[in-house]
Amino acid sequence: MKLSDFKYPLPRNLIAKYPVSPRDHSRLMVVHRNTQTIEDRKFYEIIEYFEKGDCLVVNETKVFQARLIGKKEKTNAKIEVFLLRELNAEENVWDVIVDPARKVRIGNKIYFDDGKLWCEVIDNTTSRGRTVRFNHKGDFFKLIDKIGLTPLPPYIKRDPTEKDKEAYQTVYARVVGAVAAPTAGLHFTKTLLKKIEAKGVSIVPIVLHIGLGTFRPVEVEDLTKHKMDSEYFEIPQETVDVVNKTIDSKRNVFVVGTSTCRALESSVTVDGHLKAAKGWTDKFIFPPYDFKITDKLITNFHLPESTLLMLVSAFMGHEFMMQAYKKAIKDGYRFYSYGDAMLIL
User: Does residue 84 lie within any of the structural domains?
Assistant: First the structure.
């Protein structure tokens, strides 16, 4: 398939700027691959599709306050520093994106929090990318949790608020490291998760720290030539044991989000079981693809021509996916990170 196969027109008013409250009252489109039929439900009704012995795999990554607004030394020019990845914890060296990049050169210092925190640019990486060293000693994540802003996706055209700090985070987020939320998980409440468990479903975690690459456009028509950004992931043995037991029992592995799906599909044994792993993955899933672990997928509605949309296409079939998206637009479903959900059975 080609990049142009994943275009679709979306009215801007369908891009959700704010989340639904309570979380589990968002809409849920349920698509049945075997019958090619579609149901319109509410997310809290998802419990009806689970059976005893199934398992639900979630991504416990936690979004940190990655956007820092600072001032350049001497000129006091406003500079945004977007934290991407910690390179050296001892020396507090980070890969970042700066905006406006034309004003930021090697050797420049940028000050934050009334000058209490500053960073020095020590290298250029890409046109907007820089490597910086912060002066802070101690718990850096604790500090930026106070002074940083929620890294809302670029298509949400508003400034983040204090409410986003909680809203743009799953209720089970635990391991700090993501600059974008695993948005399919935003619909779950603690109460709904308890109800699912009470039905005899095992809920197990993995971690994949989602990077800014999730929003990076695919720029080649030939998808085989696209290179994904690497993202760190961990699959613990306890999760492996539950997932493999579910597979052997012929029950269903429900997977929350494309990030979780990519992590699971990155660590498969020859006989189609899951194995424990930690490391980096740049796995790119696009049609055709034979899914080894994922039986049912919970996801949001994704950007045209995005790698997330391509994974969904591989899972549910391209023609059926485009049909479902056409219906979602016609029926006014809310799209992207704060939007509605889809359950693919």
Answer: yes
